[in-house]
Amino acid sequence: MGSHQKGERGGSSNGSGGGAMVVDKGVDFAQYFCTYAFLYHQKEMLSDRVRMDAYFNAIFENKHHFKGKTVLDVGAGSGILAMWSAQAGARKVYAVEATKMSGHAQTLVKANNLQDVVEVLEGSMEDVILPEKVDVIISEWMGYFLLRESMFDSVICARDRWLKPDGVMYPSHARMWMAPIRSGLGDQKKSDYDGAMNDWDAFMEETKEYYGVDMSALKKPFSEEQMKYYLQTSLWQNLHPHQLIGTAAIIKEIDCLTATVNDILKVKSDFLSSITFENTRLCGFGGWFDVHFRGSKVNPAQREIELTTAPSVDNGTHWGQQVFLLHPPVHVIEGDVISVSFTMDRSKENHRLMEVELGCEIKQSSSKQPPPFRNKYYIE
Amino acid sequence: MGSHQKGERGGSSNGSGGGAMVVDKGVDFAQYFCTYAFLYHQKEMLSDRVRMDAYFNAIFENKHHFKGKTVLDVGAGSGILAMWSAQAGARKVYAVEATKMSGHAQTLVKANNLQDVVEVLEGSMEDVILPEKVDVIISEWMGYFLLRESMFDSVICARDRWLKPDGVMYPSHARMWMAPIRSGLGDQKKSDYDGAMNDWDAFMEETKEYYGVDMSALKKPFSEEQMKYYLQTSLWQNLHPHQLIGTAAIIKEIDCLTATVNDILKVKSDFLSSITFENTRLCGFGGWFDVHFRGSKVNPAQREIELTTAPSVDNGTHWGQQVFLLHPPVHVIEGDVISVSFTMDRSKENHRLMEVELGCEIKQSSSKQPPPFRNKYYIE
């Protein structure tokens, strides 16, 4: 579930070294969960046709996984996946939802005459107790660039506690992708940054002249704050496929049946990308994800379904892509090879937000090599 | 300090009946304090010339209150008030700031060579321990419509613990005002609401047709959610004086030297307003505040300064005014009298946000009386 909510930094999550950090539940609710209690937000996700089609088809083209079976929907929201599971023939469906949206899910279950099958439980996945283990865990847990929101932790918790030994995960697999892009955004953001700094200079002069206080000592921290805001924070974008200027690479693969929280704390990938555009500017990188519904090895899907959030003209999703800008852009030509080292970790202040380091070396066919660089980014 | 930050609803503050509620500090930090840690936000407030002029003049035109005295700046932010107090001759100034902005305040104090006088303390006013009581408490604590953010609680706490018996408060007095207004906003928001509901109808049809789930049971809660969002949430506006169509009334008066938290938990006022426009539409009410720097009875100001946020062409402030919309608007003519009963309480979920009830009866000079009504609003 991609959410535009900015995870406000600050707060009191305590790091406890390796492994998942201890999270203050009140803070987590105030910062994260609360936007999902709004019907408007649920409607946005329910109106995403690509998302809806993928889950709908994954379920109804694979009824053998659901007929007469027990199902757990993690983070059920309005209950749509739970209701589809029931309509596909499930014997029993547990729909777990942490926010007051659970009340609306209950209303819908009743209105759609599925109350004999679907049981809505309000609470967090970590706290809820089910009366039995389940055959299927279904969840729409994906955030921007897959892992923003860190909701998969809750799915792992559900799986480890409630999935039967031969149970299946819906989706079964997930991958993160990156590719070099061209974009006018970098110029725009740099221009906004310059404007903010000019504004600051005028502000400093006025404060000195009219109010007798010298603010120049804060110019550097202000510029760092503005730089972070304009050029170091990843942006939500709906990229056009034409903006991809080089080959895309898979930077993370997750088997939803076996992945541990430890496996997903860090994303680390060194990859190469060949420029496929004749003559252009490398303006940054775009990141996206896909998930697949393949069932398990012992219990495979009859029809494998893919949900991709790659740049697309007609099949865009509410997730868009995440864009990491480079400024100034670098001139590249077809055949140039970009060597990227990408690292993504959870933010210490808020485990649902990410910090990225992106190192880049351009091996150009011409003799002139631009110097390698390493940038820091924040997924907020 | 007016802040555009939406206090996200949800969270875990516990109500404990009458009196101030117990607030989870982590939640409070995540929801409220964190925006003040940004230099961009401090700069916005420091660029508000009306605000800056008022405090600057209040201090420097009343140096007798500061020369050789001790001062406490509550919620010091960048430290501007603390620095002015030192420049006005204070012997010692304690600048208390809860966020990491305190580090920047320290930098500025040093850069302006005031470190012998100004001591910056990072922490909340409720927790901090000072080495002595003070002669003056200065603070810029006012939120939208004065009380949003409920920061005055912290000033009261400071005053009760640290102000000497004959000490003075800067500002010394505060008042809330309301007046009937005309505005095109109500029509706009109603139109937005209608659009959202049409959108919902289309969404319901598609979800039923393509996905076999009937969402109609949620139409009513969705409409309530949208109504609240579009028409029942007070808006920040920079009203033009021409938009005031009737006499303004004082709905709350606060003596900063004696007010208790209990005094400010509830604002309740019944007032009358006479329409002063020949022929117009009553589209809602505007609310604003003013504060005064008068010193105390035993230790008065030499020059009394006023800071007002009333609608103004040239002297607008970052606080703007808060607008409570009426839809549909009511036709009124000069001489009509509006009888208003206004109540404002703190939100149970978040003590820094407000819930308003506004009852209205229009005594029209013509024989036709529109029915009285009572609306609920949210200051978010």
Describe what you observe in this structure:
The structure is a homodimer of 380-residue chains. The first copy, chain A, has helices at residues 25-31, 39-46, 49-60, 80-87, 101-111, 152-162, 185-211, 219-231, 261-265, and strands at 70-74, 92-97, 118-122, 134-139, 163-170, 173-181, 235-237, 249-255, 266-274, 279-295, 300-308, 321-333, 337-346, 354-363, 373-379. The first copy, chain A, is of the alpha/beta class and 380 residues long. The first copy, chain A, has two domains: 25-140, 3-Layer(aba) Sandwich (Rossmann fold), CATH 3.40.50; 176-182 and 235-379, Hnrnp arginine n-methyltransferase1 (Distorted Sandwich). In chain A, strands 6, 7, 8, 10, 11 and 12 form a six-stranded antiparallel sheet that branches. The longest helix of chain A has 27 residues, at 185-211. Chains A and B meet through α1, α2, α4, α5 and α7 of A and α1, α2, α4, α5 and α7 of B. Chains A, B: One of its GO terms (biological process) is methylation. Chains A, B: This is Protein arginine N-methyltransferase PRMT10. Chains A, B: Its EC number is 2.1.1.319.
